Amino acid sequence: MLESEALSRLGTARRGHLATVRSDGSPHLVPVVFALLGQRLVSPIDHKPKRTLRLARLDNIRHEERVTLLVDHFEEDWTRLWWVRVDGTASILDSIDPMAVAALTDKYPQYQRTPPTGAGIAIEIETISGWSAFD
């Protein structure tokens, strides 16, 4: 898959799976929403209910900034399968900038009434790869 196609699919994907590394070296995977802003992804730590505000993904990024985000498309018609993987460097944002809030609000109607505020994760894309059954 060409990088331009991978970026296009990444930008329109509704959710991704963020992989971080725990301090003991084991993997941690969690579904996230995100917006693509050039070569940067922003994922909010929003107001949806969580068991704790001390999130493992944030602790993991504090320990190891290298992360992977995977988006994919599945159908029973396997000729339509595809995936895109981004490897990058993550940082924790104290607050999400207005441009990212606007991108998230445009992408997710759920945020139009209550836009994300507060902390987030920024991922600087270092490599992007993808695969498609129909390319």
List the helices and strands and how they pair.
Blueprint: H1 3-12, E1 16-21, E2 27-32, E3 35-37, E4 40-44, H2 56-63, E5 66-73, E6 82-93, H3 98-107, H4 110-113, E7 120-132
Antiparallel strand pairs: 1-2, 1-5, 3-4, 4-7, 5-6, 6-7
Structural class: alpha+beta
Number of helices: 4
Physical arrangement of strands within the biggest beta sheet = 2-1-5-6-7-4-3
Average pLDDT across residues?
Answer: 92
- Approximate shape: globular
Largest sheet, if any?
7 strands, antiparallel
Question: Per DSSP, what share of the residues sits in E-state strands of 2 or more residues?
Answer: 35-45%
> Roughly how many Å apart are the termini?
7 Å
User: How many β strands by DSSP?
Assistant: 7
- Uncertain segments are none
String of helices and strands = HEEEEHEEHHE
Radius of gyration using CA atoms only: 15 Å
Helix residue percentage: 10-25%
